[in-house]
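#struct-help
A.M.: can someone run this one for me? Single chain, 451 residues.
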Amino acid sequence: MTKQVVKIGNAQGFWGDSPDAPARLVSQAPDLDCLTLDYLAEVSMSILAKQRDRDPSAGFARDFIRVVESLAREWRSGRKLRLVTNAGGLNPIGCARAAAAALREAGCHGIKIGVVSGDDVLPLLEERPEAFPHLESGNSLPDLAGALVTANAYLGAAPLVEAIRAGADLVITGRVADPSLTVAPCIAHFGWKPDDWGRLAGATVAGHLIECGTQVTGGISTNWLDIDPFNIGYPIVEVSPDGSCVVTKPASTGGRVNAQTVKEQLVYEIGNPAEYLSPDARVSFLSLHVEDLGNDRVRVTGASGTPPTDKYKVSATYRAGFRASGMLTIFGRDAVAKARRCGEVVLRRLRESHCEPQQYRVECLGAGDVVQGVLPSAGDRLETVLRVSVADSRREIVERFTREIAPLVTNGPQGTTGYAEGRPAVHEVFRYWPTLIDRTLVTPGVELLEV
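D.P.: on it. Structure tokens below:
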């Protein structure tokens, strides 16, 4: 008999979120049906590409294997907990094999791992770069073709549902739309039809609400100082057959779930609220009703949906040169003026050495420079942190810059301190290229591994 409510939690909002959160949430919510883990930001793939260049077996979020190990006890005990994640990154099958090895080592057997692939569309962009203009600017891709590193389509829920219906306890995918991690178990649980647009819209809203982890339970909220930030609870959505949901968190955890935290997350990164675009449905937020039930429970109803577009969004990354940043602390009278003069000194020395960088930025942290133009300048201060940053397509220019910061320790102004990390490191720059691709050109694949 199908449960009337499916309970889905999220315990990773990004790659770098607490690795202990998944096991903690699972232990705090013994009736949880499904756990989702979101690891991929827009440029995460470029980081994974660098790791894969060094090691062909890499290319996925290795932190996830530690999470699998922390959850092994639950599966070993016979608990029916499904896990859906995009931790596969550029190498979903490699991630699945590593997870399977970790489960075997932990004594877990009979676990099925569904692997979803097909999101990698880099060969198509390299073959026909003129067909993939920038989503916002309309600029042409050809000049960047040789620098492309990754290109991945945001898949929808369909291949994840296929994996679940094939019996997968763990579903590991690469790039997928964040809300689809939640939509898939809802479709599989309730048996929704592919054109149940209202229900799919409701599940998409539920997925959007929990995809960023603790942002919906008080993290980065307007009234953050008023919440208990210690042991902040990760979110759970209780999704009903009609697609509506209740947002909550485990009892006796920190944070807060109320109408405000839910509304703040609803409008986070959505673009047009009348047409939130997902590969599963186009969703209107304008008809949503948010009802605060008290006790960290908020009901969200009224989502309306229509068929999705005939395209997938693609997240591509490309090499764009090199960067470095150096920092010093300036203390005393006229600290900001002295710090700005230091920035001028470094730039002049670079120019005189015929090494002027293509991009150069001086910031006096504490004087309003972090959000220039948003708030008025704070004027002078008794202390400031000077941050000088450069970027250039030529590595040698950036390396020359890194040798110009340290001399300020002795030939800069009095009150200069805070230099203890050596010369700044040179980092390769990867930039983001969003574009669209016809769905007909993308073929998701699903395979099953058994532990």
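A.M.: thanks! Residues 317-433 form a domain with the Alpha-Beta Plaits fold (CATH 3.30.70).
D.P.: also worth noting: The mean pLDDT is 94.
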